[in-house]
């Protein structure tokens, strides 16, 4: 009678040992708590006030800060009453109101009008200038706009000297989109 009882006790002890029940253990824990947040790029805004000038006394060059979706994000440039060879030039500050530096490039995103084939646009992103009538050009240069800071922007609109009588009274409207990026 002794052997089955001992074998039964050994079986119970083996089950308890494997299951961990009935044995005491001291434990201690350490933790890692993580909070990850993103920074912001922009908004990119213009300001405080643009400067402009014309090549000839008859040129009408103007620049006005305005909005499309948020305060100050669009610089509206006007270059009118131009003769072949005339240039309107502009300057302003491009500010990054975000918490991360923004690498900014630009692209001509739309252009329409009979005058576009003889209008050149240039600034310190396009090098040296791009002919508006040749498609959706992408900037040759990129600039870093530091977080909560600005860089100086300078640009021009030029009616090429080759603009002949067939372009008289024409117009060209185009949009240049500047895009700031942070990260890869």
Specify Rg, calculated over alpha carbons: 34 Å
Q: What is the quaternary state of this protein?
A: single chain
Indicate the low-confidence ranges by residue numbers. Answer: none
Shape: elongated
Number of DSSP strands?
11
What would you call the structural class? Answer: mainly beta
**Helix residue percentage:** under 10%
Order of helices and strands: HEEEEEEEEEEE
Average of pLDDT: 82
Whole-Å distance between the termini?
77 Å
Largest sheet: 6 strands, antiparallel
Helix tally? 1
What count of structural domains? 1
In terms of topology, how is this protein built?
Layout: H1 2-19, E1 44-46, E2 51-54, E3 60-66, E4 74-80, E5 87-96, E6 102-112, E7 119-123, E8 130-131, E9 143-145, E10 149-159, E11 173-181
Antiparallel strand pairs: 1-5, 2-5, 3-4, 5-10, 6-9, 6-11, 7-8, 7-10
């Amino acid at each position: 009678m002794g052997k089955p009882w001992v074998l039964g006790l050994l079986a119970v002890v083996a089950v308890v040992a494997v299951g961990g029940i009935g044995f005491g253990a001291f434990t201690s824990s350490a933790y890692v708590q993580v909070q990850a947040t993103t920074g912001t790029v922009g908004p990119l805004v213009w300001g405080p006030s643009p400067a402009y000038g014309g090549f000839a006394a008859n040129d009408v060059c103007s620049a006005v800060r305005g909005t499309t979706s948020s305060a100050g994000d669009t610089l509206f440039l006007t270059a009118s009453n131009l003769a072949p060879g005339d240039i309107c030039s502009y300057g302003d500050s491009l500010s990054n109101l975000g918490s991360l530096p923004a690498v900014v490039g630009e692209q001509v995103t739309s252009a329409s009008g009979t005058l576009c084939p003889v209008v050149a646009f240039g600034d310190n992103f396009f090098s040296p200038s791009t002919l508006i009538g040749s498609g959706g050009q992408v900037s040759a240069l990129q600039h870093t706009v530091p977080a909560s800071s600005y860089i100086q922007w300078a640009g021009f609109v030029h009616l090429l000297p080759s603009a002949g009588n067939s372009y008289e009274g024409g117009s060209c409207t185009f949009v240049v989109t500047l895009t700031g990026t942070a990260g890869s």
